[in-house]
């Protein structure tokens, strides 16, 4: 097993055994209920943070689907803003569009003058594939079509997400390419959940150790795919690692920890993008476990990861730095 970064390992030890308790088919319903009760769900007023942000919950009919989007942007910033279209994590079985926004707004939206739309996609197993990705796509198409009213620049849109949300963001980039939908200029993939086969070296190395291990991963993929789990022809829009054509995709930022379940599938995806002639910036943070920057936000490695993401976003968005020099 790869060693943990000392600072992160200490933080993980302080969190106790509960944080590595695996999800199983038997405990899934109870764990989902527990998570829904415990996970923060800030209101729009909370997210406005005393007037620092403009926040609106949008319930839209898009592609024949009712989709809830939470739209947020720094207050008082004029002109159309670039957009981060963000898909939350939670293994496809947990999470919500609101809980991720305080950090996104403080760490990215405010310093980069960036609008954020967070998507409330349906969770498995109540909604199986393709329900979640189709909701994400429908909301994406709607947002692009209503860019002017939303105050966003349709030519500077990045899709992004973490864990399951990273997998959905990668799938969304594939789906909008194949349907000739709106074209994002980048994909921000943070420890993305990409491969339903759950059989890499890192998934075996980190079994029973990582905060999200292969037992939890298998449980989540079974919840999403139902009786399609384990099939040879699982759709790449469910599991992007299944894609055989990665050409024509926007530049990707991919990060993962060296001591997490998703390490090998994420490294393989970056390599496949390069082999297809695409562009990817890959960071493998040494000794990091899954969700390290959430569980230990002040750790040196967490700060380095946030800085690297921000630098990539600045380059892709072509924004100016403090001296006024355009960053490309």
What is the CA-atom radius of gyration, in angstroms? 19 Å
The helix-and-strand class reads alpha/beta
- Poorly predicted regions are 320-328
Percentage of residues in strands:
15-25%
- H-E string: HHHEEEHEHHEHEHHEHEHH
Total of helices: 12
Overall mean pLDDT score? 95
Strands side by side in the biggest sheet: 1-2-4-3-5-6-7-8
Mass-distribution shape: globular
The counted number of beta strands is: 8
Biggest sheet statistics? 8 strands, mixed
The N- and C-terminal alpha carbons lie at a distance of 39 Å
Written description of the protein model:
The chain contains twelve helices and eight strands. The protein has an eight-stranded mixed β-sheet, with helices on both faces. The chain starts with 5 loop residues before the first helix and ends in an 11-residue tail after the last helix. With 328 residues, the protein is of the alpha/beta class. α7 links the parallel β5 (152-162) and β6 (186-190). Helices cover 38% and strands 19% of the residues. It is globular.
How is the secondary structure organized here?
Elements: H1 6-15, H2 28-38, H3 44-48, E1 53-62, E2 65-74, E3 81-87, H4 101-112, E4 115-120, H5 131-145, H6 147-150, E5 152-162, H7 164-178, E6 186-190, H8 201-205, H9 214-225, E7 252-257, H10 263-275, E8 280-285, H11 292-295, H12 300-317
Structure characteristics:
328 residues; alpha/beta; eight-stranded mixed sheet; 8 strands
